[in-house]
Amino acid sequence: MISRGPQQQGRILQSNPSRKFLAGTVMTKEEIIRKQKQYLFPSISTYYSDPLVADHASMQYLWDLEGNKYLDFFGGIVTISVGHCNPRVTTKIKAQVDKLQHASTLFPNETMVALAEKLAQITPGEISCSFFSNSGTEANETAIQLARMHTGHYEVVALRHAYSGRSQLAQSLTAHSTWRRSLPVPAQGIVHALNPYCYRCPLGKTYPECGVACAKDVEAVIQTTTSGQIAAFMAEPIQGVGGFITPPKEYFKIVFKIVKDYGGLFIADEVQTAWGRTGKRWFGIEQWEVTPDMITSAKGMANGAPIGLTTTRPEIAASFQGLQISTFGGNPVTSVAAKATIEVIEEDRLMDNADTVGSYYRQGLESLQEKHQLIGDVRGMGLMQALELVKNRNSKEPAPQETTQFMEECRKRGLLVGKGGLHGNVIRTSPPLNIAKSDVDEAVKVMDEAFAAVSPMHAGSASR
Ligand SMILES: Cc1ncc(COP(=O)(O)O)c(C=O)c1O
């Protein structure tokens, strides 16, 4: 078991045992939870029946307010690329805060330009021109806006099970009823094609005999539900919130040709899949050997500092009409955080680490699948790996309650994992890219115990 408990935390103040709190934190856990309920929107989604109040973190570990230490295998929703509060990033952030904290896009500044130049060196093809904003939602808004201006077309094809963000447009690109519930009026001009979900093939077929028929649905959708001229196709290389749905290797090449045939731009939503997460390559879409017209990103780009990126070829960027401003876009502090994050990934060869440690982790998860009936599917790439939990492997009935229980059991043992999927039955994991095999051993051991604890009905040999 991962070491936990107040006695191990140097920062715990024990002078008042009835009100233990950590240095620098003035509220108790109960106060924070009560004030959250009172002062924040109730719809904000949180994990665990007994909420985990985060206090501080370092590299792959996070501590709650009670001093419990957790191995963080979700990385703050696929965001902590190089470890929590990595000193090689925070030192640069601190120096920048003292030098120039804000300039706005009205005043060119070195930090924003240096980041854009760095991006031009690592993005695929001729992509070299960037627009910075504050979140994945804004990055996707900008991408669709630009694709419409550039092509003169309006309609956009997205995929079912996609998650694209929280604005009206981004929610309309999203294809999960759960995340569209607060969308009174969907944005116009968005259609959804079938997604390449091999474990639950929407066409009832099996790969590879299927001939990747789902890819051809993109064409059918264009022909039957649009004017036949599209502005863009937008997809996540691996659908993140959808439950790390990983397309077969031929998928995006087939789709790319269709998108070009109908006049659209191919936009890769790399909010979760960029920055080496999938192993060996900077961007997830590169795993499918496709060069997109545009890439959007956020999350792991600045290791936890809020940033959004829309990047494309110069001639496409030139179509952005009218004056554009983003008050916080290209902020000096977040620009420095992003460049420092990218440099750590580069200097420490973390894309290779994501590949090597990711393969090792995948083997561990597959060995759990052999042992535990609950695990219907193991999927993902690099250090982006998921387990889809089912009540029965033949019927594939989703197991959302067991998924929640499993997360609780992991938490009790000091491991944080995430959740996703249309039915909330997919365990998502995306640890920092610099974890070691020993961290994987620890995580797999905890998961093994957690599965055994979840339901005696499901425990035992998978061959039974
Ligand atoms: C693939 C993808 N796109 C866009 C977004 C929206 O990003 P943000 O929450 O930063 O607005 C998310 C967030 O989870 C995402 O996973």
How would you characterize the overall build of this protein?
By secondary structure, the protein is of the alpha/beta class. It is 35% helix and 17% strand. It has 14 helices and 18 strands. A seven-stranded mixed sheet has the order 6-12-11-10-9-7-8, sandwiched between helices. A hairpin with a 5-residue loop joins strand 17 and strand 18. The structure holds pyridoxal-5'-phosphate (PLP). The site of pyridoxal-5'-phosphate has 15 residues, from helix 5.
Task: Map the helices and strands.
Layout: E1 12-13, E2 21-22, H1 29-39, E3 54-58, E4 61-64, E5 69-72, H2 75-78, H3 87-99, H4 110-122, E6 129-133, H5 136-151, E7 155-159, H6 168-173, H7 177-180, E8 190-193, H8 213-225, E9 230-235, H9 251-261, E10 265-269, E11 294-297, E12 308-312, H10 314-317, H11 332-347, H12 350-371, E13 375-381, E14 384-392, E15 397-398, H13 400-412, E16 415-416, E17 418-420, E18 426-429, H14 437-454
Parallel strand pairs: 5-16, 7-8, 7-9, 9-10, 10-11
Antiparallel strand pairs: 1-2, 3-4, 4-5, 6-12, 11-12, 13-14, 14-15, 14-18, 17-18
Helix pairs in contact: 3-11, 4-11, 8-9, 12-14, 13-14
The structure holds pyridoxal-5'-phosphate (PLP).
The site of pyridoxal-5'-phosphate has 15 residues, from helix 5.
